[in-house]
Amino acid sequence: MRRAWLLSWFLVAAQGLSAASFDPVKDVAVALTGGVLSLTLPPGVHLKVRTFKVGLVSRGTLTCGPLPAATERDDAGDPILRGTVRLRLGGRGLEDPARLLVTYQPCTEGPDAVCFLPVKRNLAAPAGELSEAL
Fold it and tell me: Among 15, 18, 47, which Cα is nearest to 30's?
């Protein structure tokens, strides 16, 4: 059973995820835990680094740690990230809850590859969780 699952995962990753079956909102998991923002991408999808942003919509000051180093580039030469992308966040004088706006641009890979328009997602976080993070 495990071997069949691994084989199917490899085939999806090798062929790329079809743009028709990928939803840039539903298929990218966005979570904030312990002051760390995580975006988890399915196999066959990457994020463009240049369009990845985290902003504060509510009162206060947001601090972002460094993104992981991009080790690959897409066909356009842009740095990309795959898998789970983690970013440590912190802040001062934050409204509770702190309201964040996360912007990312996912791209599918393979013969029918598509880069979607940047996606904006709202996220609320307890101010205390961010105040202690950085």
Answer: 47
Give the neighbor-by-neighbor strand order of the sheet with 79-81: 72-73, 79-81, 45-48, 106-108
* Look-up of token digits 């309201």: 99
What single-letter amino acid sits at 18?
S
Domain limits, the chain: 2-131
- Do the beta carbons of residue 108 and residue 114 sit within 8 Å? yes
pTM assigned to the model: 0.82
DSSP string, 106-134: EEE-STT--BPPPEEEEEEE-HHHHHTT-
CATH class of 2-131: mainly beta
Q: What is the pLDDT of residue 14?
A: 43
Residues 12-24: pLDDT tens digits?
444 455 567 899 9
Do residues 85 and 68 touch, judged by C-beta distance below 8 A? yes
